[in-house]
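Checklist before submission:
- one chain only
- standard amino acids only
- sequence pasted in full

Submission:
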Amino acid sequence: MRDLEGGLGAAVLDDPVGASLSGAHAGLARRHGAAVRYDPEVAGFSGVGVAPGPGAWDDLVELLGSGEFADLFSCPALPPAHWKAEFVLDGHQLVQVEQVRPAAPAGLRVVELGAADVPEMLALVERTRPGPFRPRTRELGTYLGVRDGGGELLAMAGERLRPPGFTEVSAVCTAPEARGRGLAAHLVGELAARIAARGERPFLHAAAGNTGALALYGRLGFVRRADVVFRGFRTP
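Returned file contents:
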């Protein structure tokens, strides 16, 4: 995996959750003071910015509630010591610098997924565990899927965070019986092309240990912009 030279999109990509909720996803935001979160039916991410003031963590408790889960995603700021850590996962943030668009898979249908497809999308996520996905997550952007001749959903990928000038590709997953056919590569390439066509740059996040995904994204023109840490805490 190549590293990105320079600070492309540094300000907005250092706080992609906050930047999204202040811009393209403002209509999905819930706020209290310095704290912000997504509508919980859409996504679980919350934040207080990269350099929160002394009252920001209290604001987040008021916003989420006492004893609730706070998914801080890639926020570099740490809450007070009495907050209980739920998980820590090393990861990478990648940005596409070269557009690569693999050929469409032969004999399969690529479709745009809508509200009627949500039960199938949730079932595929349950089988493959690509990351957080909720009943209204598809409202964050375009979601594409691949169906077989019988109409079964075999793979999908979609848009998630939308900081100004960028769109994140997320929820990339393929049913176990359909892997090795290039479905994920095609979907990511197609989404990235659509994002670029509207004048934005595709980016994404991946766990540091997910070497298969990182290799795939490298082949699709993504390079590492930054190392990040995904963290979740329980509010006091």
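Reviewer check: Residues 10-92 form one domain.
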